[in-house]
Amino acid sequence: FSLKPEKSSNYEIAYKMQTRRLSMRAAWFRNDLKDLILRVKSSYNGQTVIDGKEVYRKENVAQAYIQGFELDFESQIAKNWLLGANLSYLL
């Protein structure tokens, strides 16, 4: 039995706007995960429990993704004052 390495592909699309007093950025991202390694119930020599503990083995059995968006902005509200904020959200 042989495990394959887990794989990840990342994507991002972003837009940035900047004026003399305002800077803003918006981005969407996604991370595709393949061949995730998980524990799967198994047996050893026909036994599913050894010394009171269940038998498991690791296999490449899952796929998943993480995606979300980010928003950033910064504005000069007075000569020596900047106001900024950041929002990140996972879907």
Helix content: under 10%
Average pLDDT metric: 96
* N/C terminus separation: 35 Å
What low-confidence regions span 5 or more consecutive residues with pLDDT below 50?
A: none
Tally of individual helices: 0
Q: Strand order across the biggest sheet?
A: 1-2-5-6
The helix-strand sequence is: EEEEEE
Going by helix content, strand content and strand pairing, the class is mainly beta
Q: Would you mind describing this structure in some detail?
A:
This protein is 0% helix and 76% strand. By secondary structure, it is mainly beta. The strands form 2 sheets. Strands 1-2-5-6 form a 4-stranded antiparallel β-sheet, with no helix packed on it. Strands 3-4 form a two-stranded antiparallel sheet. β3 and β4 (53-54) form a beta hairpin. The protein is elongated. The mean pLDDT is 96.
What would the keywords be for this entry?
four-stranded antiparallel β-sheet, mainly beta, two-stranded antiparallel ribbon, 91 residues
Describe the SSE topology.
Layout: E1 7-18, E2 22-41, E3 49-50, E4 53-54, E5 56-78, E6 81-90
Antiparallel strand pairs: 1-2, 2-5, 3-4, 5-6
Short description:
Helix content is 0%, strand content 76%. By secondary structure, it is mostly beta strands.
